[in-house]
Each structure stands twice: as structure tokens, then as C-alpha cells.
Amino acid sequence: DANGLNTTAVVSLFNSLISGFGKMRFSPDGNKLVYVDFYFQNGYCIGFDKYTGMLLNNYEVLTFGTNELPYGIEFSSIGNYMYLSTNFFDTGIGNLYQYNMNSATIGTTRTLIIQGAISFGEIQRANNGKIYIANRDVGIDVINYPNLPANACGYVQKAYALHSLMGLPSFYQY
Questions:
Q1: Which of 21, 43, 64, 124 has the fewest CB atoms within 10 Å, measured from its CB?
Q2: What is the mean pLDDT of residues 160-172?
Q3: Is the pLDDT of residue 103 over 90?
């Protein structure tokens, strides 16, 4: 409103399986919202109107394998790629994927960056544009060039020998 803040809540209905046990991240341009649900093992890439705060009707379901639990989400600094980590229930095996956000069918662009005896945790983009990934019990991984395709993104496992378990510090990205 004229005072710069509208105190009327914006309510968008989204009929889907959402447990509330997951991660949510906005794209850098604010036009997409990605939500992954650890409990229901699914995810959604939803159009978002950053001016009204409304979810749009255009969305895509992200699917995962049997017992593959999505955990972390992050976007490259220019928003052309999204990175998503998953872990397989009770196996200690994890996957790190890259999705092309410029595609009309984002879910079909999933590209595996690494799979192995890794339990991936939180993913966080830092001010230097690099993406850091908590790698349970072994350190912090890094994606050095997240704006490039998977084969050139510069993923380094155990780049930093810091014991992080599954989390990283949270901070606002503008």
C-alpha cells in the first residue's frame, strides 16, 4: 500500500502432499519456489508472483527413487541451475543433482553430479557465488562454478575438513 507494507495476508492454496518436513527455496529472481518434502519423498517447482505473493497455477512435480529422501536445495547465483541433494533411507548413500531452470520441463533435466557413500545435508550459496554442501561426518563439499552445466560445475568433495553433520549457517540472500 502507500505506506510500503500491506498487512493483509496473502493466501495461496496448493493441493498436494506436504508434510511440513522439508526445505523451501526461492529462485534468485523470485519467480520460482521449490519445495521438497522429506517425509512424502516428493518435490514441487512452483511459479511465484513476487509482486503479489501468490503461488501460480504452473508447477511441476519433482520425483525421486524409492526410499530416496530429498534434503537440500539451492540455486546458482543467476538462477539458471538448481542443486538438490537426496539421501537413501538407512543406507548412507546420497545423490547430488543439478536441474536446468531454463527448461520448460525442469524435472526431465535432472543430471547426477555425484552418487556415493555420502550423506548430504544442507546446501547454501555464499556471497562468493559458490555453493557449499554439508557432507555428514566428512566435511564441507563445494560447487565452485554453479552457473555452469553439471560436467563443468567444479564439484569438490571434502573441500573443507569441517565436521558439519547435516547443517550450515542460514543467512539471507539478496
A1: 21
A2: 66
A3: yes
Res 65: pLDDT:
86
Measured between alpha carbons, how far is residue 32 from residues 54, 55, 145, 146, 150 in Å? 11, 9, 21, 18, 21
Residues 131-151: tens digit of each pLDDT: 999 887 678 899 999 999 999
Cα(54)–Cα(48) distance, rounded to whole angstroms?
Answer: 6
Per-residue confidence (pLDDT) for residue 172, from 0 to 100:
59
Counted residue by residue, the chain has a size of 174
Helix H, strand E, coil C: the string for the chain is CCCCCCCCCCCCCCCCCCCCCEEEEECCCCCEEEEEECCCCEEEEEEEECCCCEEEEEEEEEECCCCEEEEEEEECCCCCEEEEEEEECCCCCEEEEEEECCCCCHHHHCEEEEEECCCEEEEEECCCCCEEEEECCCEEEEECCCCCCHHHCCEEEEEECCCCCCCCCCCCCC
Angle formed at CA 60 by CA 147 and CA 127, multiple of 5 degrees: 30
Is the pTM above the cut of 0.90? no
